[in-house]
Write a structure and sequence with these properties.
By secondary structure, this protein is an alpha+beta fold. Among the domains are: about 120 residues, Immunoglobulin-like; about 50 residues, Oligo-1,6-glucosidase, Domain 2 (Oligo-1,6-glucosidase, domain 2, Alpha-Beta Complex); about 80 residues, no CATH class; about 80 residues, Golgi alpha-mannosidase II (Immunoglobulin-like), CATH 2.60.40.1180. α8 packs antiparallel against α12. It is globular, with a radius of gyration of 26 Å.
C-alpha cells in the first residue's frame, strides 16, 4: 500500500455530523491500492466495553484516489476511532499520530470526535434538495407593465446590449407564472431587483426599494404571495460585496472626501476618489468604478446590510438570498448574516456565488450551498464541448463530491448556464440533442438543478450581453418539443427521490470512451443513467442484477440477458432506466 496517499482529518468534509445522531467518516487511499478498510470505533470513556469494528465502503474515486465512507451513530454522540486498511496479507492501522503496522492497544492516540453538538450540525433547508430552480433576469423576462418602462425602452425582442432596456418587470413575472407551473419548477432565483442605474442592477443605489422600472415593493409582495400559492419559493440576489456609484453614502464620500462620515464605509487607498490608468483609487468589484466595494467590517455597514437581509424576509416573505461575489466578503460578516437570516426564517436558503473550492464557507456557520460551477464545467465539457471522456467525467465528479459533506452536495446549486455564461444551446453548437444530454445529467446528479430562463424553449446567446436576450413568448417561435423534454426530466426528478438523494455508483466510465453509465439507488428504487456523448451511435453492455427495466423517457421495456443489459445509444443519446424487478 502507498502509505503516503492515505489521508483523513477530523471535522470538515472528512468527519462531520450529517444529522443530530449520525456521523459520516471518510478515508482516502491510492486508487485501486487498498482492498478493504474498516473503522475501529468506541466511546473514549469506556473503550474496552464499547469498541467495535465496522466495514467501510469504497464510495467513490477520482483519477488518483479512492474514497472510503462509513456512517456511525455513536450512542453517546462521541467517539474515538482509527482505521485498519488491508491489501493482500498486509495490514496497517491509521491513527491521529500516524500509520503503524501494529494494532493500537488503546484509544489514546486515535482520532477524536469529542461530541456531536446539535448546534454544530450543518443543516441546509430540507426543501432545497427537492427543488428545481428557474433563474430570471428581470429586465429580459416579460414586460407586464409598460407604465414603468424606462424612457429609452426598445421593442421587446431586440438585440441586447450592455446598456439597453426592454421593459421587463415583476408584473411580467406574475403574468407568466403559469409557464413556470407548467414547466414544473418550484423555486425562482432572481437577479437583482433593487434600485440601480444599469439593466442588470448589480450597482445598487437603494437596498430598501424595488427598482421603479421593475415595479414597487408592493408588487414584489404580490409576486412572492402568488409564487407561494403555487408552491414556488423565491430567492433574491444580495449584492453586499459592493454597492453602486449612486448609493447615497458613496455620493457623500465623493462630495466630501475623507471628511465624509461614510469615508470608512469603503476601502479608499488614495484621496480624492479618482480613476488612474483605468484603476480606481478605491477598491471595487473588478475594476468597475461604478461598483465600489463596501467595508463589511465596519459596524455601521454591517448593521445596514444585516437590516436589509432581515427586512426582505420579514416584510416580503422571501425564502432566501443568493450572495453575489460572496468569496470577497469577510467570513465574520457571513457568520452574522447567517444568524440574522436564520432567525428571521429558519428554512431560508443561503446561496453563495463561489466558483472555486468552497469548503471554508460550507462548515454550517455561513452558507447552505454555493453555485456549483465546477459541476457546470464537468457536465458541459463532456456533453456540450466534447472535451472530456467518460473516465474524466467520473474522476472529476468523484473528486468534487469528496470535497464536501453529503448535505452540502445535496443542496448544491447545479447550473449549466446563467447571466454570466454562454447559453447552453449555443455552447452545444445549437445541437439540441447535446443540450438534452447535458440537461439529463444535470437533473440526475446530486444537487439542486437550475434552469436559466429561456433555455427550456431554445433561446440562444453568447456571453453577456448575448445570454441576456428577451424571453420569447410567441409559442410559434418556441421549441415546444424541447420544453416537453425539460418538463419531463423535472417531473421524473420530482417523482423519484433516488435521483435527488440516492447513492451514486458508476457502472461504466473508461478512458478514450465517450460512453458513461451510473446508478442512483435509494431503498428499493434503482435507476440507471446511460449516456453516449460520442458523434456515432454505439452500444453499451452493463452488468445488472435485475432482469426487467423500463426506460422512463420512452416507456420502452427492456430485458437483461444473463445479467447484462444491452443498450443501443445514438450519437449524443441517453437512457434513464428504472429497475422493475
Amino acid at each position: 500500500m502507498l502509505l503516503e496517499a492515505i489521508y483523513h482529518r477530523p471535522k470538515s468534509n472528512w468527519a462531520y455530523a450529517y444529522d443530530e445522531r449520525t456521523i459520516h467518516l471518510r478515508l482516502r487511499s491510492k486508487r485501486d491500492d487498498v482492498e478493504r478498510a474498516a473503522l475501529i470505533v468506541g466511546d473514549k470513556y469506556a473503550w474496552d466495553r464499547t469498541v467495535e469494528e465496522i466495514p467501510m465502503t469504497k464510495w467513490i474515486s477520482d483519477s488518483l484516489f479512492d474514497y472510503w465512507h462509513v456512517s456511525v451513530q455513536p450512542p453517546l454522540r462521541r467517539m474515538k476511532y482509527a482505521f485498519r486498511l488491508e491489501a493482500g496479507n498486509e495490514a496497517v492501522w491509521f491513527v491521529e499520530t500516524g500509520i503503524s503496522n501494529e494494532e493500537p492497544k488503546d484509544s489514546i492516540k486515535m482520532f477524536d470526535f469529542p461530541f456531536l453538538n446539535p448546534a454544530d450540525v450543518f443543516t441546509p433547508p430540507a426543501w432545497v434538495k427537492d427543488a428545481a430552480f428557474y433563474q430570471i433576469f428581470p429586465e429580459r423576462f416579460a414586460n407586464g407593465d409598460p407604465g414603468n418602462d424606462p424612457v429609452a425602452v426598445e421593442p421587446w425582442g431586440g438585440e441586447p446590449t450592455p446598456k439597453n432596456y426592454f421593459g421587463g418587470d415583476l408584473q411580467g413575472v406574475i403574468d407568466h407564472l403559469d409557464h413556470l407551473s407548467e414547466l414544473g419548477v418550484n423555486a425562482i432565483y432572481f437577479n437583482p431587483i433593487f434600485k440601480a442605474t444599469t439593466n442588470h442592477k448589480y450597482d445598487t443605489a437603494d437596498y430598501m426599494t424595488v427598482d421603479p422600472h421593475f415595479g414597487t415593493n408592493e408588487t414584489l409582495k404580490q409576486l412572492v404571495k402568488a409564487c407561494h400559492e403555487r408552491g414556488i419559493r423565491v430567492l433574491l440576489d444580495a449584492v453586499f460585496n459592493h454597492c453602486g456609484h449612486t448609493f447615497p453614502p458613496f455620493l457623500d464620500v465623493k462630495e466630501k472626501g475623507a471628511d465624509s462620515r461614510y469615508a470608512d464605509w469603503f476601502h479608499v487607498r488614495e484621496w480624492p476618489l479618482d480613476v488612474k490608468d483605468g484603476i480606481p483609487t478605491y477598491d471595487t468589484f473588478a475594476y468597475e468604478p461604478i461598483m465600489p466595494k463596501l467595508n463589511t467590517e465596519h459596524p455601521e455597514v454591517k448593521e445596514y446590510l444585516l437590516n436589509v437581509a432581515r427586512y426582505w424576509i420579514e416584510e416580503m416573505d422571501i425564502d432566501g438570498w443568493r450572495l453575489d461575489v460572496a468569496n470577497e466578503v469577510d467570513h465574520r460578516f457571513w457568520r452574522e448574516f447567517r444568524d440574522v437570516v436564520k432567525k428571521a426564517k429558519p428554512d431560508a436558503y443561503i446561496l453563495g456565488e463561489i466558483m472555486h473550492d468552497s469548503m471554508p464557507w460550507l462548515m454550517g456557520d455561513q452558507f447552505d450551498a454555493v453555485m456549483n460551477y465546477p459541476l457546470t464545467n464537468i457536465i458541459n465539457e463532456f456533453a456540450a464541448k466534447k472535451e472530456r471522456d467518460g473516465a474524466s467525467f467520473a474522476n472529476a465528479l468523484g473528486a468534487l463530491l469528496a470535497s464536501y459533506p453529503q448535505q452540502a452536495n445535496e443542496a448544491a446549486f447545479n447550473l449549466l448556464g446563467s447571466h454570466d455564461t454562454v447559453r447552453l444551446l449555443t455552447l452545444c453548437d445549437e445541437d439540441k440533442q447535446r443540450m438534452k444530454l447535458a440537461t439529463l445529467l444535470q437533473f440526475t446528479l446530486t444537487g439542486t438543478p437550475c434552469v436559466y430562463y429561456g433555455d427550456e424553449i431554445g433561446l440562444t446567446g453568447g456571453y453577456d450581453p448575448g445570454c441576456r436576450k428577451c424571453m420569447e413568448w410567441d409559442e410559434a417561435k418556441q421549441d415546444r418539443e424541447l420544453f416537453a423534454f425539460f418538463r419531463q426530466v423535472i417531473a421524473l426528478r420530482k417523482q423519484y427521490e433516488a435521483l435527488r438523494t440516492g447513492d451514486l455508483t458508476f457502472l461504466f466510465a473508461q478512458e478514450n470512451d465517450m460512453r458513461l453509465a451510473y446508478e442512483r439507488s435509494l431503498g428499493s428504487d434503482r435507476l440507471i443513467v446511460a449516456a453516449n456523448a460520442g458523434a456515432e451511435a454505439d452500444t453499451l453492455a452493463l452488468p445488472v442484477t435485475s432482469r426487467h427495466w423500463r426506460d422512463l423517457l420512452t416507456e420502452e421495456d427492456l430485458i437483461a440477458d444473463n445479467g447484462e443489459l444491452h443498450l443501443c445509444l445514438p450519437a449524443n443519446g441517453f437512457r434513464l432506466l428504472l429497475a422493475q424487478s
